[in-house]
Design a protein that fits this description.
359 residues; alpha/beta; 36% helix; five-stranded mixed beta sheet
Length: 359
């Protein structure tokens, strides 16, 4: 029996069941037990993600259970996994990617509208600096406000309150929840490039756990993994994260990979965007097993051609280095300083509130 862990929200359960159902389809003789828990990121709902300070808000408690041997694997949204994880853990597989794009959900009073139809001073809810920075450039008269909570909570805040005119979420999550009818607009990359690995699910397990790695290799999707390796290598080289507005758009064909990446200032007034296209290896190299210890931004290659993964990783690193040789380096530095200051201010605010409650 394999023991699987996930956070207790509805979307997390849907994602976990998607993985388990596929594994059962391929391995009908295997049994799975699911246990749940909440993470730090799920518990802290009164602060913007960028103001909390930790890089592994949605993953670390789950990883500790893995490290202790309490579970065999954990299902994540890959965009939530830091590009650097514990050495004794690996991303055992990347499941076939759903939509990587962002989507707009309108307040019921704006049914049938798109962002461009909203009046000046409209308030847009998003928990992402990346989304806010890009959309602020497109819609300078809008106000972007943090909105936290699981998808059900965010929908309730949108529908029951007059504060927000619209919220922006990952399209994949909305589709997985069956809320297709609430998608008012899917944002094109020219409007808002997406987060690294957005739309992809990943399964994390222990390094060297050959039984689990062998099981997961059956659902490791080559195109998704190669694209996500390039994207994660880009973010890793930039040393970015949720505290800075970094975005990507990748495309993969039989012969080429293209990665477009952008770095934005927090207010969206400054940005640097560039792209790289590279030919993929023509002749497959000898495949190596997932248990040989080689990973790419913590992703095992499994049965995927090693040279494809190597090319993808180089593309991400090269694009990041190209941006770091421009104004993007200064933009990143300033964004990190701003978010670090915001974290300190948020901690001070909570300390003041706690002190007042004790009086």
């Amino acid at each position: 029996m394999f023991i699987v862990q996930f956070v207790y929200f509805q979307l997390a359960l849907i994602q976990t069941n998607t993985i388990i159902d596929k594994l059962k389809e391929l391995k009908p003789d295997h049994d799975f037990e699911i246990i749940t828990m909440a993470t730090t990121g799920d518990k802290i709902l009164d602060s913007a993600l960028s103001k909390i300070g930790a890089k592994d808000l949605f993953t670390r408690e789950l990883e500790l259970a893995l490290e202790k041997g309490e579970v065999d694997f954990v299902v994540h949204s890959l965009k939530d996994l830091p590009t650097r994880i514990a050495e004794n853990l690996v991303i055992g597989c990347v499941y076939k990617r759903d939509s990587e794009f962002d989507a707009v959900v309108m307040h019921p009073k704006h049914k049938g509208k798109k962002l461009a139809d909203l009046p000046d001073s409209s308030v847009i809810g998003t928990s992402s600096l990346r989304r806010a920075a890009q959309l602020q450039r497109k819609f300078p008269t809008f106000k972007f406000e943090s909105i936290r909570g699981n998808l059900n909570t965010r929908f309730k805040k949108l529908d029951d309150d007059t504060k927000y005119d619209a919220i922006v979420l990952a399209e994949a999550g909305l589709r997985r929840m069956g809320w297709d009818d609430r998608v008012a607009q899917v944002l094109d990359p020219s409007e808002c490039m997406y987060a690294v690995s957005q739309g992809a699910m990943a399964v994390e397990c222990r390094t060297g756990d050959e039984k689990t790695l062998s099981l997961l290799s059956a659902i490791h999707d080559q195109d998704t993994a190669v694209s996500c390796i390039a994207e994660r290598a880009f973010l890793k080289q930039l040393e970015g994260g949720c505290s800075v507005p970094v975005c990507v758009h990748s495309t993969l064909t039989d012969s080429q990979i293209t990665l477009k990446g952008g770095v934005f200032s927090i207010d969206g007034t400054k940005c640097v965007i560039d792209s790289i296209t590279r030919d993929l290896p023509g002749e497959p190299a000898k495949k190596k097993q997932a248990t040989n210890g080689i990973t790419f931004s913590s992703i095992v290659h499994g049965d995927i051609d090693l040279s494809l993964c190597e090319t993808a990783e180089v593309v991400g690193i090269d694009l990041a280095n190209r941006l770091l040789a421009t104004e993007a380096a200064t933009i990143l530095k300033e964004a990190k300083e701003q978010t670090a200051k915001a974290v300190i201010e948020e901690q001070a605010r909570k300390e003041r509130e706690a002190a007042q409650k004790q009086k």
